[in-house]
Amino acid sequence: MTTRVYRLAKRLTDKAEQVWLFTRNFAVPWTNNASEQALRGPKRHQAVSGYWHTPSTLGAYLRIRSYLVSARGHGIHPLDAIHRALAGNPWLPTPA
Fold first, then answer.
1. Cα four-point dihedral sign 47, 50, 52, 53
2. pLDDT tens-digit profile of 63-73?
3. What letter would DSSP give residue 94?
4. pTM for this model (two decimals)
């Protein structure tokens, strides 16, 4: 147990700049709730059914989910993002 605690403390010390970034830059959310929400659906499916049919179906689901979450985060309605993607003109985030 103490080894795990030490590793966690060491990791937090090494990444203190990232851990505390939200205290200096208010545009950075203080929680990773979006990441947790993105994993909730696939994990729930796995818990209920016990598996994904194939790794490729899981990969396809996660690619689509990631695209829609990113689009929503940039103010694009999911249906608009899907329509653009199917029309051959997918929405892509602009690099910072």
1. negative
2. 888 888 888 88
3. P
4. 0.55
Would you tell me how many other CB atoms lie within 10 Å of the CB of residue 8?
10
Phi and psi (nearest 5°) for 12?
Answer: -65, -35
Angle at 72 between CA 55 and CA 21, to 5 degrees: 90
C-alpha 13/C-alpha 16 separation (Å) is 5
- Which amino acid, 44? R
Residue pair 45/58 in contact (Cβ under 8 Å)? The answer is no
Q: Is 28 strand, coil or helix? A: coil
What gap in Å lies between CA 22 and CA 55, rounded to an integer?
35
Dihedral through CA 69, CA 72, CA 77, CA 83, nearest 10? -40
* Secondary-structure percent of the chain, ordered helix, strand, coil, rounded to 5: 70, 0, 30
